[in-house]
Amino acid sequence: MHKQKRHGSPARRWATLFAVSVQLICVACFQSAKAEEVPTAVEAKSFAPGRAENLQGISATAPNFDLQSVQAPVQLAQSQPTVAADEEDEPLDLLGEFNVTAQRRRTTERENTQTTYVVSKEDIKALGATNVSDALRLVPGFTLIQSLGGVDLRGQNSLRGLDDARFVILQDGRPLTRSSNNRASDISKLSTINVERIEVVSGGSTLRYGADAVGGVINVITITPEGPPKLNVGLEFGSFGFSQYQLNYSGSNGIAPTEPGYVGYDVGYERRTVINDFPFTRNITAYNGDDILFADGDGNFVSKGTSFSFSEIAQQNYTFSDLYYGKLIFKPGADHTITVYAQQQNTRRGAAGFCTGCGLTGYFDDDIDPNTGLAGPRGYSAVVYSKAYYNEYYNYDFSTEDSNEDQTGFNLTWDWDLSELNTLSTQFSYNHTWDLNPTGGGQKYLANRTLEAQVRYNAQLYPGNIFNAGFQFLSNRSVQSPELGAEGGEIFTLPNGGTAVPFDREISRWAVYFTEDLRFFDDALILNFGSRLTDDVQFGTFTTSGVGLRYNFGGEKGKETFGLRANWSQSFKAPGLSQLYATFTSGRNISLPNPDLQPEVGVGYDIGLDVALSPTAVFRATHFRIDLSNAVLEGVRVDENDTNTFTQTINAQATLSTGWELLFNWQLDSNWEIQLNHSIIDTRAIGDAASDGLQRYVARGYFYGIQTDEIPFNTTNLALTYNSPGFRSTFSGTVVGERRIANTSFYTDGYSRFDLTLAVP
User: Fold this and answer.
1) Residue 70 has pLDDT above 90, yes or no
2) Which residue, 34, 506, 695, 754, is the most exposed by fewest CB within 10 angstroms?
3) Range of 208-212, 285-289, 557-561, 689-693 with top mean pLDDT
4) What is d(CA 614, CA 117) in angstroms, rounded to the nearest whole number?
């Protein structure tokens, strides 16, 4: 239910934070005390009625058929992660866990200056997550919408208040950024079938990972196969048309992954289907006493008074996905490791954007002009659009307007240990997507290709020093057309009177960087700094730098109780090829290209404290701030006539994102674990409209001085897990606080969702 308010009260937000935290702690204690064994393999997931993003199916899970059980190894590196087996027998030390993404080498949490979080394979199983998006619920600072089995969520996830155009998703170090819009790949479709762990580095990471890593990096690390050959078969079924079939064959030649002659292989297939034909209800309450309109099938707007309840069956949310993948690791000698990974994923989705469940609601605001697009006349607070109205207004065929995407990925890595203290890594990656978007407007056919080559050198030049240097070459190409086979430069007239021009564009850049890690006072003080020089054929040369500091104290060396960390970094974010050169249409709106766009430039910092309350209990608190100037803003109205409204992507003033990330993790014993995190995020456009020559509201929910739309001020996540060889159960919950409704200055109350996942072998 939406309840409109002008602005969120700070006092109310803090009171809500306190109340929610107390409630979740009580719930966790209650569930721990009342946990009972349930002898069934059923995964029960509850939802809040009436909200599409809260709905999940109820599924029965068939067991995997494993011909020979084998323990999964801990990851060592992004391309061939392994670890000595005797480390698994060491006492548990949560701050001693390893991470490879933050420093591009294997380090413990006590050695990292940056803020890092790890979602393990056990966490993924505990949450019952079938895709990467759902698995990231336990990461503070990450804001997501329920994936519903894989619906298109591009542009709707954020890290530290910045959308997926400003953070990077990697798969074993391979970037999954789309060249057309420079957005991260849609993580709602990335399967967890072959994922060993997910590492998240929050905060500026452009020094080591290049442009776009303004808000951080999410690295999805696939498994390292070892042990005898084994076959796994998984079958899963659920409500709302959900089904998942998995087939995997993996193993090795019996040699340990760290030994010469090792060969490991992992091949598999997954088919995931979800219809999402769930019932839903929209409860709408007017503001200022204004009436609500209902758009019926005859194209009429009918007044429904100051409150209205609308029920419908969702449609156009279906997803069909076929994933094929293979991984081969070969260690021809003690000093060389070669890793090859390839995958093909074919996805078919309903045309989300039009009638994603229908009953879509447009809220009218005094600060914006409601007489555009589908909006009704002035003097009303909201319009609810029925399915029949979409058919009438668009002459829309819901059965044929599927969105198709075929994605091909390839990654080749060669790691060479030059000596015990020197390592050279070479990586080549290829990513290609082909899209058909019937409702995309104008450019219906898109082919995107990204090529990347990296060389990284790591050396310990003297005790207490680690030196890293690297070279990166990146080429992005996008081919877009309103018709297949159209020639570049040909002008097409669109049904709404606009035009579209096919194009074939490519942008490339190269960069060199170095980082230096220094240790002082018997390794208690860790300092790292570095700089990156990037030369872009479109935007010229940029230099970005960063520095990090960590001080560990309170306890013996390597087991310190406290760790203070701080980071400062510069960044730049280049616009995408579509923003620079493409023409798109949506209804009567026509989006024009802007080849004069300039990159965003930013500065970010964070400061945090890690506390080992015991070897098995850790509390972490981090404060962050990210300033982006020259902010790239999409959908700004630049002209209009009686038929069309023309928009364009521009450089506005600045965006500011600040907040806190709080995490508590406690491994109570060998069976029980509790994870609790809370995020406080304040992200908004700053400056004033007059300086930009714009009205206060400019486009797509962009308001000066008001929280970015759909990003909650407060989010709390909880997971209480019991895990034994014969039984696994997890009670998890998410409490989402107040957030702003898209395209308005109104705020809506939060919601909560709690899941119970049970599994027996």
Assistant:
1) no
2) 34
3) 557-561
4) 19
Enclosing H/E stretch for 432: strand 422-436
> Residue 90 corresponds to which tokens in the numbers above?
């060491």
Q: What DSSP designation does 105 have?
A: S
Query: Quick check: 509 pLDDT over 80?
Result: yes
What is the pLDDT confidence band of residue 51, given thresholds at 50, 70 and 90? very low
Region of 551 (left: φ > 0; alpha: ψ -120 to 50; beta: rest) is beta
Residue 697 scores a pLDDT above 90? no
Provide the pLDDT for residue 90. 56
Structure letter (DSSP) for residue 131? B
pLDDT of 537 above 60: yes
CA 39 to chain centre: 35
Task: Judge residue 455's burial from the number of C-beta atoms within 10 Å of its C-beta, 0-12 exposed, 13-18 middle, 19 or more buried.
Answer: middle
pLDDT in tens, 11-50: 444 444 444 343 444 434 433 333 333 333 333 333 333 3
State the sign of the Cα–Cα–Cα–Cα dihedral 86, 127, 178, 404. positive
What is the C-alpha to C-alpha distance for residues 563 and 551, in angstroms, rounded to an integer? 6
Of residues 86 and 173, the one with the higher pLDDT is 173
Question: What are the backbone angles phi and psi of residue 681, rounded to the nearest 5°?
Answer: -130, 130
Closest by CA position to 195, among listed 113, 127, 241, 105: 127
Q: Choose among 642, 649, 633: nearest CA to 372.
A: 642
DSSP 260-310: TT-EEEEEEEEEEEE----EEEEEEE-STT-EEEEE-TTS-EEE-TTEEEE
Q: Cα–Cα distance between 571 and 642 in angstroms, integer?
A: 42
SS3 625: strand
Strand, coil or helix: 190: coil
DSSP assignments along 707-721, one per residue: BPTT--SEEEEEEEE
Q: How far is CA 45 from CA 56, 246, 721, 730, in A?
A: 6, 21, 15, 11
pLDDT one-digit tens code per residue, 349-359: 876 544 444 45
Pairing of strands 702-703, 162-163: unpaired
> Which ranges constitute the DSSP H helices of 654-759?
689-692
Q: Cβ-count burial of 87 within 10 angstroms (0-12 exposed, 13-18 middle, 19+ buried)?
A: exposed
Overall size of the chain counted in residues: 761
CA 439 → CA 109, 178, 317, 433, 731, distances in Å?
Answer: 46, 19, 14, 18, 40
Q: Give the pair of three-digit tokens for residue 233.
A: 């078969």
Cross-strand bridge partners of residue 382: 292, 363
CB 476 within 8 A of CB 508: yes
What dihedral angle (degrees, nearest 10) is formed by the CA atoms of 350, 353, 358, 359? 160
Q: What is the pLDDT of residue 742?
A: 73
Contact predicate 113/164, CB 8 Å: no
Q: Compute CA distances 330 → 173, 316, 340, 372, whole Å.
A: 18, 44, 9, 59
Cα distances from 605 to residues 168, 206, 667, in angstroms, run 18, 13, 30
Spatial contact of 504 and 555, defined as CB atoms under 8 Å apart: no
Number of other CB atoms surrounding residue 298 within 10 Å: 9
C-alpha pair distances (Å), 639 with each of 586, 648, 658: 15, 9, 34
378-397: b or e for each residue (b if 16 or more CB lie within 10 Å)?
eebbbbbbbbebbebeeebe
Q: What is the pLDDT of residues 75-112, one digit of tens each?
A: 334 444 444 444 445 567 777 777 888 777 788 888 88
Tell me if 679 sits within 8 A of 718, measured CB to CB. no
Lowest mean pLDDT among 147-156, 577-586, 651-660, 705-714: 147-156
Which residue, among 567, 576, 667, has the nearest Cα to 616 in the 3D structure?
Answer: 667
